[in-house]
Amino acid sequence: MQCSICKEKPATVHLTQIVGDKMQKLDLCEECAKAKGVNDPAGFALADLMLGLGASQEIEQAAGGTEVKCPRCGFTQADFKKSGRLGCSDCYKTFAEGLGGLLKTMHKGTRHIGKAPEALRGARDNADKLKTLQKKLAKAIEGENFEEAAQLRDEIKQLSERSGSPKNLAR
Amino acid sequence: MKDLHEFLISPAETARRHGPHDRIVMSSRVRLARNLRDSSFPGWAKKPERVKILEAIRPAVESLPEMKDCFSEAMDNLGALDKQILVERHLISREHAAKSAGSGLVLNREETFSVMINEEDHLRMQALRPGLQLKQAWNAIDHFDSELEKKLDYAFDGDLGYLTACPTNLGTGIRVSAMLHLPGLVLAEQINPIIQSVNKLGLAVRGLYGEGTEALGNVFQVSNQMTLGENEPMIVERLEKVLSQIIEHEENARQTLLEKKPKTVYNHIGRAYGILANAHSISSKETMNLLSLLRLGVDITLFPGADRALVDELFLTTQPAHLQKQYSDKLTAEERDLIRADMVRERLKNVSRPVIKPSPPSTAN
Predict the structure, then answer these.
(1) I need a surface site. Which of A133, B8, B26, B189 has the fewest CB within 10 A?
(2) What span, in angstroms and rounded, lies between the C-alpha atoms of B116 and B98?
(3) Residue A165: half-sphere exposure toward Cβ, Cα within 13 Å
(4) Rounded distance between C-alpha atoms, residue B347 and residue B116, angstroms
């Protein structure tokens, strides 16, 4: 097995980290392990390593070899490879495909469930409520509970009228 | 322009601040990363854009009630020594100390809120508390952030949350961390398995000054790694649970060491005292490692009459920038080692050598 960092020497240090139900694996040679501080447990966490390794490759693959450039700030995947940072908030849209997989290995989930700016909070709550109602509606129709379905449909109509156009926030 | 040195709370006063579990937990911190919607992130923005961002954010931060009589400065107006002092006090990151034009710092009077502008993100705001007070720190910074969001247009996405320069901070942008003094676990050689199991829980363990630094003085920083897919209270709670277990392990390790290997403990502490109280030249690193043992000695009452605050104060004042600040001439590292030793000897003059109680009969405790 080859070292995942230098891709030259054989891997002798094997790391496994389980976070929630996900397993992350990393195989390193002696020298790279030392260079990355794997032998110094105080400075080491697997996620720090994973970030530098997987990110740029995934983005590159997602781009299919062609250079993707953020239309707003001009940031490219080569820049991401160099720094591990993005150029602006729009880059999350530009590089969305490649980032998806990366976020999965890095975080507990891929959807934000924490704090939101107050101005958006009401809209987001409504969007969530709308989603649940729509699910209920589908179920009601499936179960041929047409009376309940009619009621749910009215509720959905009311809610979407009240919140204007929630679609841009709902997703 | 305010003078930083006059603004900062004296090390003696800082060391006397208390919080729950401060025998082991030296401090708690919650940091939030935020960015403005229509600007490039600081690492990518050119200098004129960074300056513009700083000019937009700084007055907004200064206007918050928490920031009354604050210290607010552009990083290019701070000297290298002042920046290093801020790092030694954990008020800014080492990365921020390296910034100049287009970056800034706003620090409140009590040093409980510190806002770095144009560090890795446009805004890195943190609430700091002595001892174990993660929830209090989260509540404080949550409120601070809610006030600030009324004045600034944050980059936020319904799915991804707060958008950050580095995808590792995406979502909540939160880093919850505590600084722990763990000499018992280090002496008992249990620290590595503890670090490994903490890592397995998806938390990071780092050294005294964060990412990529060594654990000087047996001080470790434990923090969350994941910021997306969990909400802030869940992250705070998880860290709190893990911390309470680490505290328990540390207390157990100390107890077991004293029962099973009292001579080893007394030897380490006695030697640390001997060197600190008598050395004429000592490096900052050695000082920190020995002060850690002295702190342990105070905790297990080997130094009756000595206060932990004295040790904590020395922990700060013996660090290079704090030491240099007391002298007008530029000192070399060798000169600092001499002055440091003089200072420590002087401050330990009234601390008598460790009192070792005769080992109690085996029935005791």
Answers:
(1) B189
(2) 12
(3) 2
(4) 34
Does residue B28 or residue B356 have the better pLDDT? B28
Separation in Å, CA of B264 to nearest CA in chain A? 24
Q: Which of B40, B146, B174, B189 is the best substitution to test chain A (most A C-beta atoms within 10 A)? A: B40
Is pLDDT of B350 > 50?
Answer: yes
Q: What is the mean pLDDT of chain B?
A: 93
Q: Which DSSP symbol is given to B24? A: T
What value does the CA radius of gyration of chain A take, rounded to a whole number of Å? 23
For B221-250, the pLDDT digits (tens) are 999 999 999 999 999 999 999 999 999 999
Calculate mean pLDDT across residues B94-112.
Answer: 95
Are A103 and B157 within 8 A, CB to CB?
A: no
Whole-structure pTM value: 0.81
Question: Is the CB of A45 less than 8 angstroms away from the CB of B167?
Answer: no
- Residue of B120, B156, B195, B218 for testing the chain A interface, max A β-carbons within 10 Å: B156
- Select from B41, B172, B213 the Cβ nearest to the Cβ of A114: B172
**A85: nearest Cα among B154, B35, B175:** B35
ipTM (interface predicted TM): 0.85
Residues 6+ apart with CB under 8 A from B351: B273, B277, B303, B305, B306, B310
pLDDT digits (tens, 9 = 90+) for B132-141: 999 999 999 9
B202 interaction partners in chain A (CB closer than 8 Å): 17, 19-20, 47, 108
Band of the pLDDT at B328, cuts 50, 70, 90? confident
Q: Which residues of A touch B196 (CB under 8 A)?
A: 41
Question: Interhelix angle for B232-260 vs B191-200, to 10°?
Answer: 160
Q: Reading across the β-sheet that carries B113-117, which strands appear in turn?
A: B71-74, B104-107, B113-117, B123-130, B25-34, B174-181, B219-224, B203-206
